[in-house]
């Protein structure tokens, strides 16, 4: 039964990744069809990709609000910034039971691999993170939208070509 739920989780993650690809393709189609369309900078594409990435992080590890009741059961400080948690702060508790300030963990997840800073347990599937990192690096290094589309098709192979 556990493997069935793992399969469903994997399929759900892949559906999110596919949605991201479809969204990117729609943006590219709009850009090519409408002269001077709203999408003209790689920053906008990067924001779309990053937003989808963190929506998935939020879905898998929802934000919680710190309270004094929480203090008796869990750690009292963020292992990233080494500050104690304060009443009302936004925290993110991972599946491995480690807790961090939401902003600290999100910065960690964006800069490094999507793993727990303490025990290195994966926060998101490895393939999804690798694709995000490749696209992020490509866009930050001046790649064009057409190059990004080419990279996506290289990552997803014939599966992506059959979709479009």
TrEMBL record:
Superkingdom classification of source: Eukaryota
Keyword DNA-binding: no
Matching PROSITE patterns: ZF_RING_2
Xref: Gene3D superfamilies: Zinc/RING finger domain, C3HC4 (zinc finger)
Domain RING-type: 78-120
Transmembrane segments: 12-34
UniProt name for this protein: RING-type domain-containing protein
Organism from which the protein derives: Populus trichocarpa (Western balsam poplar)
Lineage of the species this protein comes from: Eukaryota, Viridiplantae, Streptophyta, Embryophyta, Tracheophyta
């Amino acid at each position: 039964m556990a493997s069935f739920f793992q399969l469903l989780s994997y399929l759900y993650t892949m559906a999110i990744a596919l949605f991201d690809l479809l969204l990117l393709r729609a943006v590219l189609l709009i850009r090519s069809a409408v002269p001077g369309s709203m999408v003209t900078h790689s920053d906008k594409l990067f924001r779309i990709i990053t937003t989808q990435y963190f929506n998935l992080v939020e879905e898998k590890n929802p934000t919680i609000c710190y309270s004094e009741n929480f203090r008796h059961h869990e750690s009292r400080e963020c292992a990233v910034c080494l500050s104690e948690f304060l009443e009302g702060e936004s925290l993110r508790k991972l599946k491995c039971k480690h807790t961090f300030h939401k902003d600290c963990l999100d910065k960690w997840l964006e800069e490094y691999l999507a793993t727990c800073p303490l025990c290195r347990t994966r926060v998101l599937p490895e393939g999804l993170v690798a694709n995000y990192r490749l696209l992020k690096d490509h866009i930050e290094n001046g790649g064009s939208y057409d190059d990004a589309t080419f990279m996506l098709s290289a990552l997803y192979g014939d599966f992506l070509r059959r979709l479009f």
